[in-house]
Structure formats: structure tokens, C-alpha cells
Amino acid sequence: MLEGLVANATGALPLHAVRAEGLMAFLDGQASSAAAFLRATGFSARPGELALLPGPDGLAGAVIGLGADNVASFGAAPRALPAGSAWRLTAGPQQDSLATMGWALGAYRPRRHKSGGPAPALLEIPADGAEGVMMAEAICAARDLINAPAADLGPKELAEAVAMLGARHGAACEIIEGTPLDSGFPAVAAVGQGSPRAPRVAVLRWTGAADGPLIALCGKGVCFDTGGLDLKPPSSMLRMKKDMGGAAVVLAVAEMVMRRALPVRLLVLVGAVENAVSGTAMRPLDVLRTRKGLKVEVTNTDAEGRLVLADLLAYAAEQDPDAIIDCATLTGAARTALGPDLPALFSHDDALAARLVAAGQETGEQMWRLPLHAGYDGWLDSSMADLVNSATKPMAGAITAALFLRRFVPDSIPWAHLDLYAWNDATRPGRPEGGEAQCARAILAAIPEIPRRPTRDA
């Protein structure tokens, strides 16, 4: 069971939810003493605002203010209400599933290496809360992966996480390593050749409907990124255990798709690798083979994530899917442009991009579409190979990274690339400091709207 949730809570106190515009009507329906107390304390039902209601035996209940985002509104409650207290939702304007999810996401704390600390308040799972529990479990599992120290989560362990996910849902999973990886995913192999922890590619296949659209999800799984021989400074390396955040996000999406039994077919690809420094690491100006056959000159060993994705995207395209979505903690340039909370979306398909943007608005996981500006494509030219992995101009880094990836996806296949942060720098309602499965719910919401490609139906 997720921290903060309980199936049945003896003596659970009522938790009322109210919106600002409904506050007067709510107060009119309460006992005069409770209404007077809330008026006297200035309760205004701001989103996430909490007020405890006194009773003859101490606490009689609590009231929480709702905003447009139920997840955020309930996210602060488990750590703001008295530790260990138990609560039940009363009938109100909240959506019980989203309230349950928000509560669980706010109660979450990484516990693998930390014991003790105050217990969160408990929420009795409401009758309509099962969907919220399911989504919270998938998101918290992704958070656990991102929060895991790199010493605990290397390429082997990340690939095993994909296999365990597949086993739970009857999906087929193949782990590619060794000689087959060297020949089939040469760019992934090159990125990982400097580490004693060998790289792997995990391939998961699941069928929810035999005639459903085939959705390919590709995740960058760099379990730790030193930058390679183009070594990162210590301040930039500090959070690089999260460089497998894209893989964690696609696993959260896959978990939710399979648990919902959506009528689609899934192909999930995770490139699990460590970018390390050693005598066998790839070097600047090395020329690498890729699965697609394009040769890439390495102008920056710290631009390794796009090399991993290049092979994954090429493999995904070979399966002739109806759409490809990749997720990656790819560039600092995207964070400079949009900050930590707003993932950058790139796509050469307007319909797919529109579906993802709309799903982001619907779920409160907004993203911002940036252009695949063709005028910068020449910045990837190389005199020694087909292209370089990193443009030498110190501008538009997120765009040129996306343009690099586009070289590995046919124009005929709808493709979207999400350059995300996968981390919360500080604790906020429903978003504790640490790893975050950014945009997982938005991608989940978009998937049922993705049609089969017309050429596939012919």
C-alpha cells in the first residue's frame, strides 16, 4: 500500500472539500459553531488551504480548499494534517480519484535509505479512488527509480525493472546485451563502453488489442552521466543519477496503460547505460556507427543521451508503429528556456503535438512546443561523418538536439520528443523534492486519442 493511504481507517475524521465560490453555501450547511469558527479564522478556501475543526473531544474534522488542480490541492494535506491522523472524504466538488492520487503523491518520500521522520496523515481510500491509487503507484515507482543512487541502479538493474514490469502484466520482455547489443545498437554500446557496468537495451511488448494502434515509447536510461571525457563540473554532476528519468517516465506510462488495459499495442524501449570515464570511453572526434547506418562524429561526449535515443528510435521505426514518443532528460538548454516545470515538446507531426499539448492542459502537466527549425539543421553537419552529435554553436541546444533525433525517424511516422527535467528542486504540494515522472499522466491521456496510421489500415 502506498504511504498515506489505508483501505479502512477506524475513527477516520471527515475531510470536507470546498471551492471558494461555494464557500458561503458550505458554511450555511454547517453547524453554527463550525461556521463561526471558520469565519473567525479567515478561512477563504484557497487552493490547498486547510482548516482544522475543533470538537468536544479535540478534532471534529477539517476543511480543504480546492482549486482547478485537485491533485495539487490535496497534495499538501498528508504532511499538513496531524501526523498519523486518519481522514475520510465527504461528498463534495472533489474528484475522489484525483484527490486520492494527490494525497498519495504528497505523502510520498523516498524511504530506501532513510528511516524515521514524521508519518503522514492517512486517507481512507474512497470507493471511487482505485484509479487514483493505480496512477500514484506507477508514478511513485518511477520516482523510486529516479531517486535510487547510481550505485544501486545501474544498467543491469534498470533493465531488470523493465523485465519485472513486463512480468507483472504478461508482457514479453527481451534484454539485449553483449555481442547482439554491439551489432544491433552500436551507438548505445559506444556510450556505455567506458563503464564496467555493461549497457543493455530492454524491449517490452504488450498487446491490449490485436487491432489497436502500435505506440512506441522510448526512454533515455543513462543511470549516471559523468559527461564522459568531456567531464561535467561537480555542480552539474550532482544530480546525474536522474539522467535515466526519461526511462522512468515511459515505464510509468506503460504501467498505467497496461493496468487500464487500453486497446493499444505497446512497444517500450529503454536504453540502459552509464556514461563513465575510463581508458575505454568514447573520445571526442570518434566516429560512431548507429543502427540506422548514419555515422556520427562525437563533438561532445556529454551529448550522449541523443546517441542512445538514436538507436532506440531507429529500432522503433523499423517496427512501423503508429506513433513514437521519446522521453529524455536531454539538454540543459531546454531548462534554460523553459525552467524545470515545463518540458519542451518537439514533433514533426502537428496532430500528435496537439494531442499531447491538450492532454497536458487536461492533466495539469503542461508542456511547451518548440520548433524543429530547419534553418539550424546545417549546424549538425560534419566534414568527417554524416552528422555531429552536438552543434558547435552555443545556442538553441534543445532544438539542435531534437533535430539530431529527427534524423532517425521517418517523416511518415508521427513522432514526439519530450525534453524534461524529471526532478523537483524543492518540495511543493504533491511534488516532494527528488525524482518526478513528469508528463506521465499527460502521455497516458493522449495515447487513447492516437489513431492508426492510414497507410497501416490500407
From TrEMBL:
Record flagged with keyword Magnesium: no
Matching PROSITE patterns: CYTOSOL_AP
Listed GO biological process terms: proteolysis
Cross-referenced InterPro entries: Leucine_aapep/pepB, Macro_dom-like, Peptidase_M17_C, Peptidase_M17_N_1
CDD domains: Peptidase_M17
Record Pfam families: Peptidase_M17 (PF00883), Peptidase_M17_N_1 (PF21337)
Family the UniProt entry places it in: Belongs to the peptidase M17 family.
Name of the protein this chain belongs to: Leucyl aminopeptidase family protein
Native species: Neoroseomonas marina
